[in-house]
Amino acid sequence: PFVLGTHYNGSETSGYHTPGNDLKVIHTRSGTKIILNDAQGSVFIEDPSGNTWTMDGQGNINVNAPKTFSVNCTDMEVNVSNNYTTTVGVNKSTNVGMNQTISVGATSSETVTGAKSLTVGLSMLTHITGKLDEYIGGDVHSETKGGKNIVNSEKGIVINSEGSIDKNAKKGVNVNSAEKTKNH
Asked: Ranges for the Gp5/Type VI secretion system Vgr C-terminal trimerisation domain (predicted)?
């Protein structure tokens, strides 16, 4: 069959009809739709599963996936000029194949309400140019296997205890001082 022309029917209107003819819509039988809204300058895309993509015409984009949202690429850059917030309802995992660098221009804060574990396969260096304060509500256990535990200080070391201080060694305990030592 050939279509040679069209015939205007002014009495039947689309479900998306507006007085200003602002909506241009593609809506398929399965429920997939694209709505272009000239009044708002917006674009709305939806599929039957509930996936949506909204560009509101005000500079905002909202993407919703009821199940999984995946992005696959060779390289990726995300540039955020102001604030960046991530909220994860259950678990979050990050795997980096090689190196990771985190740089914070001002303050960094981390809160863990449960237990925290840190495992380092080789060496670890903590470099602090200011002051380090540690507040621990329970016991501290530090164990060094296969090496020494060395504490260096330019201005002195103070050990205070409301209980006793015990020093145990399987070999000798050496106390060396360039000046006279007080033990009382």
From this structure: 75-145
Place of tokens 């979050």: 92
**37 is written with which tokens?**
């809204």
For the entire predicted model, the pTM comes to: 0.68
Q: What is the pLDDT of residues 125-136, one digit of tens each?
A: 999 999 999 999
- By C-alpha distance, which of 44, 1, 5, 52 is closest to 22? 44
Name the pLDDT band for 64 (thresholds 50, 70, 90): very high
Partners of residue 88 on adjacent β-strands: none
The domain segmentation of the chain, as residue ranges, is 1-68
C-alpha–C-alpha distance, residues 75 and 79, integer Å: 13
Q: What are phi and psi of 2, to 5 degrees?
A: -115, 140
| Over residues 164-182, mean pLDDT | 86
3-class state of residue 168 by DSSP = coil
Strand partners, 53: 45, 63
Whether the CB-CB separation of 21 and 5 falls below 8 Å is answered with no
Q: Any alpha helices (H) in the chain, and if so which ranges?
A: none
Angle at 131 between CA 182 and CA 141, to 5 degrees: 65
The reported pLDDT for the residue numbered 89 is 96
103-124 b/e (C-beta count within 10 Å ≥ 16 → b): eeeeeeeeeeeeeeeeeeeeee
| 33 neighbors 45 (Cβ within 8 angstroms) | yes
